[in-house]
Amino acid sequence: MSHNSFGHLFRVTSWGESHGPAIGCVVDGCPPGIALSEADIQPFLDRRRPGQSRFTTQRQEADAVRILSGTFEGRTTGTPISLQIENVDQRSKDYGAIADRYRPGHADLTYELKYGLRDPRGGGRSSARETAVRVAAGAVARLVLGPDVRVRGALVQIGPHAIDGAHWDWDQVERNPLFCPDAATVPVWEAYLDQVRKNGSSVGAIVALEADGVPPGLGAPLYGKLDADLAAALMSINAVKGVEIGAGFAAACLSGEENADAMSMQGGRIAFGSNHAGGVLGGISTGQPVTARFAVKPTSSILTPVASVTRDGEAALVSTRGRHDPCVGIRAVPVGEAMLACVLADHLLRHRGQTGH
Amino acid sequence: MSHNSFGHLFRVTSWGESHGPAIGCVVDGCPPGIALSEADIQPFLDRRRPGQSRFTTQRQEADAVRILSGTFEGRTTGTPISLQIENVDQRSKDYGAIADRYRPGHADLTYELKYGLRDPRGGGRSSARETAVRVAAGAVARLVLGPDVRVRGALVQIGPHAIDGAHWDWDQVERNPLFCPDAATVPVWEAYLDQVRKNGSSVGAIVALEADGVPPGLGAPLYGKLDADLAAALMSINAVKGVEIGAGFAAACLSGEENADAMSMQGGRIAFGSNHAGGVLGGISTGQPVTARFAVKPTSSILTPVASVTRDGEAALVSTRGRHDPCVGIRAVPVGEAMLACVLADHLLRHRGQTGH
Amino acid sequence: MSHNSFGHLFRVTSWGESHGPAIGCVVDGCPPGIALSEADIQPFLDRRRPGQSRFTTQRQEADAVRILSGTFEGRTTGTPISLQIENVDQRSKDYGAIADRYRPGHADLTYELKYGLRDPRGGGRSSARETAVRVAAGAVARLVLGPDVRVRGALVQIGPHAIDGAHWDWDQVERNPLFCPDAATVPVWEAYLDQVRKNGSSVGAIVALEADGVPPGLGAPLYGKLDADLAAALMSINAVKGVEIGAGFAAACLSGEENADAMSMQGGRIAFGSNHAGGVLGGISTGQPVTARFAVKPTSSILTPVASVTRDGEAALVSTRGRHDPCVGIRAVPVGEAMLACVLADHLLRHRGQTGH
Amino acid sequence: MSHNSFGHLFRVTSWGESHGPAIGCVVDGCPPGIALSEADIQPFLDRRRPGQSRFTTQRQEADAVRILSGTFEGRTTGTPISLQIENVDQRSKDYGAIADRYRPGHADLTYELKYGLRDPRGGGRSSARETAVRVAAGAVARLVLGPDVRVRGALVQIGPHAIDGAHWDWDQVERNPLFCPDAATVPVWEAYLDQVRKNGSSVGAIVALEADGVPPGLGAPLYGKLDADLAAALMSINAVKGVEIGAGFAAACLSGEENADAMSMQGGRIAFGSNHAGGVLGGISTGQPVTARFAVKPTSSILTPVASVTRDGEAALVSTRGRHDPCVGIRAVPVGEAMLACVLADHLLRHRGQTGH
Which of B317, C54, C269, D314 has its CA 20 to 30 A from that of B127? Predict the structure, then answer.
């Protein structure tokens, strides 16, 4: 990954700040001949869009995407696809007060340490608003992967409340505003989040991702591993602090016997008895579902004052009254899906390039 | 990361298989004028070298590194540094039996699915032996970072046995063969590992890394984040299944108040009351220690037979009698340190390139 | 260079077709704190803009650039700079007739051979219109280089008519619409081009570039040479068929004695008696002016019918009546300057990254 | 191209100095399953090897290549191929005298300006010796391209003496030590070179390259053009000062009618009446032969003293008595072929990656 690009053959370059006129990205290297219009992208943006429930920020952004290049008569031409989303709801006044001090947990301080200046409006480049363009790029990536590859995500933990994995039902995910796959957990989370929101507080979360139908062979040794690129892609999302593939950290407690995914022949194909590997061995996809999880820290913008300092080196308290998500992990679900789709699409092309398959 | 390279300005390209004549890497982009000889690298290789205790494989490799290019009269010239390590102890017969079947948990299957063939000798390219060149490159990276940056690692969990963080003592790490920072935990681990080894089994582990003295400003928005590149670098190590920065997955359970690292002025500089961020905000270093953890799965080579299939699609049991680490997590400590050093060195140069500082 | 990006640290990603809603680019990696507004870019676009004399296409494009991201209060922030130019004058009907046949000398055929389809409107992605975004990026690159580096270009040959180098006067270049540095040649070219235009024909040209004030040390061995990157950058411009550095092809006829640029000390600094090297030795800048030349083929769109084939494999004659430059080499002057500026800016940052200078 | 690597999917990383223990390269991304042994590479190295006629340096290097990784049982495995050539004939005393002064035309000065130090033995990294590894990589690239793609080169001009193109006979190229395709020119060149050598002088040359059988569609818009990458690859060769594709600089003098390569259907396929395009339109291969030419400056090491300066800033005369090629252009023929082969192989994989063809 260079500064604001990722991928090798399916390559996304992102630009834009929260309070500029627009945000967008350039998707370069997309295969030609794929049917693509705004209608293929918009539904994914709508899933990520804020203001759809009381559990996300009440900022109102239409998040209407425009395709400015790279298609002709509804098909990709193989040339760069420029995607653009106008910024509509830019209440800069919400942010004016924090231009002179560093919000703990935000990139205010580090942008200034690095660049000597920063765009303080809404977090500027480091605003979670940027994740909209990831979702747009991910929608294109899904088309590259084709209908046989299904990329899905769900929220599996909010604060201390984890779902019961035994109740997992993918159909539930789209039926509640929390992307929760366990119907019984939804009211628990809602009550908990209402309390968090009332307190002006925030909380972290864990997102689980799964891609099934991934052809075997995607990935490359040893630095271009599928899971290494996926780890970077997920860690590049705002507020993410941890990434797991397959069994993840739980693998530390397993014995070799427990961790081994036994193989057998089933109908002429290799089948696995379990999937601790998360669909990746030696950095290369096995054909099993690719599974990953990532941890999102609590929103740093909270009502409770936290000790900080001003740009002039004075002690200051920072308390944020703006319209913020009490749990940014919720809207991270479609973002994580998008990053997984982009990494898979890139590796699909890379694999095809090297091997012809 | 492309197939076998990583880094942008401090760029490492790795090559070699377990049972070929040698392994090595090319370190390109190293600043000129740095004093460098084999003696600067060898101690780090010796820390990683197998056969130093009963808890690692008894394979004997001198792991003697040679510098074949890039230095003149003991200083780096700015041209590519070729590092090479001969393979000495190649008992291919240990591996002959598994050439026709796929070892569960290994890359045997996926290399064949991807490439249509594989080098079965000792895992070929996917052997943990490759990590020696990472350690060699990391030793060069440390010199780029200079003496003010200290990169250290420790083993903090083996199987279910975690250290007591309250007893953490960096000085202990070099005093036991398990890189354990908690003296009281060493005998617990030794007894546990003896049992694991006796059973022909294996176990996973968790490694913790810390770099202090890291200048603020390293990293880049949003895809070239310091933590995104670090996540890829650590996940690219064999057998790693999870990566955390700072509070990591524990951040999911925290409230915004708990997670906030409060700031204050201390002696004219910004100080932090805690380090849940792991020294990285918005992908950019804060000046606090950069902290990360990664999970290593149990060695897949175990004595217990596991169900698998042959290349011809027949059911087969795989049991590995070779000389293997019961816990590859142990030797992953110097490897993780090396990857952290490489990522920091690369970002140091990238930051200097963009900003001149 | 990947598909539509170039540069490593100063990295430009271009997008857009001739007849889409807009064209643009993302400039990533620009140093922070540089004063930048549209007014810094527009004059360079105006120099390249068509319709300014009877010798260029009469298409009318305002070529008004907008900065959509990457600046705050008139300064670069270090984050990606999105530059966008709307397409205004899109007379698609001019091109309708050639959608079903391949124009000789154009990319019509090869885009279809590669991608299986193409955007036929105005040449689509391969239109010379794309060069506007190069000029925009080049204007930013000039600011990165600073006022001590001066990047200039001139047209030195049109068809068989070369300038007299002894009459070279940089001041003349901006005083005629042909970027000609030799006042005596201007009327010769004008008369010649009038004839070419009247015939519905076209003609090739040669552009010379010079950058003075380039600090020594820019460039990298052996594949990242300054001149290698410059060669790619110039050859990537539409219709360019040849690139020379310094003495160029004439060096083939020189003896070692003639070609040697003798050195002496002048006022405490190394001075050169000549500049056959074009300011680059071993791929690294010497501090002398960096000089390059490139050849532009004649515009392929001509009135004279040329034998071709249709998409259905039928013989066809192609004659282009649209509004075309009789000599695209003219408008290639500001484009060549821009590419030189971009390459120098990228190498300035890369050099600083590796060496700290 | 980064410092010492080139190519995206077929990626070569080169290392080594003239007088170190060895030189070599890592070829990463090579497709699997290709039959490859040292015997496939050595003949190309032998063609480039010095000391084979009185017209090249009398240095004796066996240039025996070893494959250290990336193959198993005589086939590529898809993992990185490490190629290594020992340096045998290192008479450092030849070069001792020039360690304290800058040889005009050499990279001595610029390496020191950039890095603050240099390896003076035999030109260090900038020695033409490095081109051996390009030839080795090129031999692998030819195998990737397969037998249907034929990459050939010839010397077409030495000093003022150009061949007669009408006499071109590819079979002649291997029958004389000057890679001359025109039998009648060989004695002219031999007599001329004998005189040059006797005078302790040197002379430049022009090399022509041709690849036939190149499938259409290779290349990418607009920055990853086939010809842009080829220009960089050729300009990256030591002493090259100019690159042309197809008609090259001569295109500047052509009218649109003259330059147009007319198309017609021949046996169900598109045929061209001429090849001014050099097999590339819009940066993408047409299926015609890809043709290029490059100019090589005269060897800078000559007997005639040239004014220079010492590292201490004193005036000095430099005269080189070592064993040097009077015309490095001769041995540049196999090097140019290798670079062309590498660029084509890379674009073959990239094209396949994006389009699946």
Answer: B317
CA distance B149 to D98: 39
Q: Do C306 and D260 touch (CB under 8 A)?
A: yes
Helix (H, G, I), strand (E, B) or coil at D140: helix
A99 Cβ contact list (under 8 Å, min separation 6): A120
Q: Are C297 and C241 in contact (CB under 8 A)?
A: yes
Question: Collapsing DSSP states into helix, strand and coil, what is residue D244?
Answer: strand
Q: Does D58 touch chain B (CB under 8 A)?
A: no
3-class DSSP string for chain B = CECCEECCCCEEEEEECCCCCEEEEEEECCCCCCECCHHHHHHHHHHHCCCCCCCCCCCCCCCCEEECCCEECCEECCCCEEEEEECCCCCCHHHHCCCCECCCCCCHHHHHHHHCCCCCHHHHHHCHHHHHHHHHHHHHHHHHHCCCCEEEEEEEEECCEECCHHHCCHHHHCCCCCCCCCCCHHHHHHHHHHHHHHCCCCECEEEEEEEECCCCCCCCCCCCCHHHHHHHHHHCCCCEEEEEECCHHHHHHCEHHHHCCCEEEECCEEEECCCCCCCEECCEECCCCEEEEEEECCCCCCCCCEEEEECCCCEEEECCCCCCCCCCCCCHHHHHHHHHHHHHHHHHHHHHHHHCC
Expressed in angstroms, the distance from the first to the final Cα of chain D is 25
Q: Tell me how far apart the alpha carbons of residues B14 and B84 are, in angstroms, rounded to a whole number.
A: 10
B354–C221: do the CB atoms touch at under 8 Å?
Answer: no
Among partner residues B31, B354, B355, which is closest to C354 by beta-carbon distance? B31
B192 in D contact zone (CB under 8 Å): no
Model pLDDT, residue A91: 58
**Digit-coded pLDDT (tens) for C253-282:** 999 999 999 999 999 899 999 999 999 999
Residue D281's pLDDT is what? 97
Give the integer Cα–Cα distance in Å for B57 and B323.
5
The model's pLDDT over B246-289, given as tens digits with 9 standing for 90+, comes to: 999 999 999 999 999 999 999 989 999 999 999 999 999 999 99
Nearest CA in chain B to C355: B31
Token pair of D266 as six digits:
């021949």
Tell me, letter by letter, the H, E, C secondary structure of A331-356: HHHHHHHHHHHHHHHHHHHHHHHHHC
> C315: alpha, beta or left, given left = phi > 0 and alpha = psi -120 to 50?
beta
Contact D354 A79 (CB under 8 A): no
pTM for the model: 0.97
